[in-house]
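Thread: "does anyone have the structure for this chain?"

Original post by V.I.:
We have the sequence but no experimental structure in hand. Need at least a predicted one for the grant figures.
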Amino acid sequence: MGMVGNYLRVSKEEFEEYMQESSKLEDRVYSEDNLEDKNLMDVDKAWEGIFFLLTGASLSNIEDAKEPLSLILNATELDPEQDMGYGPALYNTVEQVKAISAEMNKISEEDLKKKFHPEKMMELQIYPNMWDRGEEELEYLIDYYSILKEFYNTAAKEQQAVLFFIS
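Reply from O.Q.:
Generated one for you, tokens below.
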């Protein structure tokens, strides 16, 4: 199965509720009744690859990544005691979401292609460490980046915070 990156758009009210009681987030995400949450999406195993294309960094050197794009993975923990599968959920505030969205809108598909360096990604052990297999990996990242960009644009437009977790 592997580690899948998940993003959830939430209203300010929902965000405050999850800040107060993080177990409500777990209930929402993992409820069998909630299989069709339009505010929840995943980027499969592309999450660290997208992060690399946007920042040039990996989880091992995440501190080198610059804001606001670094915030898609280098964000604040919702509850350090929480475990959403592979650790706690992270969050972007509404203001951070707007900044991330604005930066993503400046990046073209061609920009991403120029930043795709399979050898460097393998050296940094960017999850899932399969980047040297050919052009389909680049297309995989671009496809999920496009979905993530639209997701952040919607969140910015709707004044929503974004939560990220790995399951």
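V.I.: this helps a lot. The chain has seven helices and five strands.
O.Q.: and Strands lie at 5-10, 40-42, 76-77, 90-92, 161-166.
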